[in-house]
Design a protein that fits this description.
The complex is a heterodimer. By secondary structure, chain A is mostly beta strands. Chain A is built from no helices and eleven strands. In chain A, the strands form two sheets. In chain A, strands 2, 4, 5, 9, 10 and 11 form a six-stranded mixed beta sheet that branches. Chain A has a five-stranded antiparallel beta sheet with strand order 1-3-8-7-6, with no helix packed on it. In chain A, strand 4 and strand 5 (about 45-50) form a beta hairpin. The chains are: A mainly beta, B mainly beta.
């Protein structure tokens, strides 16, 4: 079983719609969770961190965490063409972050 | 710019040659990480330093790879006798962590290696 798994995508959404990204992880003791955005040819950029069960909102982004289900999600509201990128879920595994393979989102105008 | 910087940004080399990448972390960060990323995959952990001490290395890191962080400042990652399978983006990241666990990592722009 992979440490971090994401829905494979690609995900295509119309401009203005909500993009929903999912991530599951295998290690029950993980305590911190992150979403990174990566544009093609660029390095990952941190967009959200979440540590407690429930929702955390930052602008158009909402992260949701359910530790009992070992599930993290990211919602992007009012999607814009500039949101077109690969979104990486990362989970704290002690001394390191373990990353999923990413979900590529395309926002079509 | 006070972010993580990496050099060179691109490196093309022939199989069998040695290459070295440099990373300058954010100055107040005590942890420095090296990751490798190939097309369609997420970053893969290679090694990390807490100050100048290299505390963990991935099993993926063969003996052709060596990393240093002298004086707990910048870090270098050297690959000896490069192979075509080493072609990837090498990402450096830094963080500040004053206790266990791992906080937010901030990545540099990466060093893209192509081995011919």
């Amino acid at each position: 079983q992979k440490e971090v798994e994401q829905n494979s995508g690609p995900l295509s959404v119309p401009e203005g719609a909500i993009a929903s990204l999912n991530c599951t992880y295998s290690d029950r003791v993980s305590q911190s969770f992150f979403w990174y955005r990566q544009y093609s040819g660029k390095s990952p950029e941190l967009i959200m961190s979440i540590y407690s069960n429930g929702d955390k909102e930052d602008g158009r982004f909402t992260a949701q965490l359910n530790k009992a289900s070992q599930y993290v999600s990211l919602l992007i509201r009012d999607s814009q063409p500039s949101d077109s990128a690969t979104y990486l879920c990362a989970v704290n595994l002690g001394y390191k972050l373990s990353f999923g393979a990413g979900t590529t989102v395309t926002v079509r105008a | 710019d006070t972010g993580v910087s990496q050099d060179p940004r691109h490196k093309i080399t022939k199989r069998g040659q040695n290459v070295t990448f440099r990373c300058d972390p954010i100055s107040e960060h005590n942890r420095l990480y090296w990751y490798r990323q190939t097309l369609g995959q997420g970053p893969e952990f290679l090694t990390y330093f807490q100050n100048e001490a290299q505390l963990e290395k991935s099993r993926l890191l063969s003996d052709r790879f060596s990393a240093e962080r002298p004086k707990g400042s910048f870090s270098t990652l050297e690959i000896q006798r490069t192979e075509q399978g080493d072609s990837a983006m090498y990402l450096c990241a830094s963080s500040f962590q004053d206790r266990g666990g791992t906080g937010e990592l901030f990545f540099g722009e990466g060093s893209r290696l192509t081995v011919l």
